[in-house]
Amino acid sequence: MPEIMEIFEKSGALLNGHFRLTSGLHSPVYFQCALVLQYPDYCRQIAEKIRQYFSTKKIDVVIAPAVGGIVIGQEVGRLLGVRTIFTERKDGAMALRRGFTIAAGEKVLVCEDVVTTGGSVFEVIEIVKKVKAQVVGVGFIVDRSGGKVNFGHDQYAVIQLSAQTYDPADCPLCKTNVPLVKPGSR
Ligand SMILES: [Zn+2]
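That is the input. Now the predicted structure with zinc ion docked in place:
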């Protein structure tokens, strides 16, 4: 883990400011995983941690929620040598598009970049369950929940971090008029 944090710092992926997370919560810290994953070697090293953790499991397919999960999911899938697909939001709801399918009984590893409340991952798990496939685990890069999010399956975060988050109604940064940034969409 120390070397992974070093990778984040070197990539400029640890940002300080006032951010609106995908979960809607505000935070003074943001992990722009894309800045790390742009380097193939860093991407491989992080994906390798996830692959190693799940190395005793049989995995048929890797699935990740767009956009954040796609790059890490693809690399984990490449290391495992298995099919890799992603879900996207359509009219607000997470869905399999582009002709992607999962067969009943397939063993599925869910990948994501950053988990704060885990909302997107929970939706992906529902999609997998709906087609009667089996979630074998959830592998992700950063756990921002301080270990609070429990997906109900074997789960692994490369980095555990309980970075401060605030309800927008009670955010001290909002009160000081620090400009709010939604980094994912920049
Ligand atoms: Zn705020």
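The mean pLDDT is 93.
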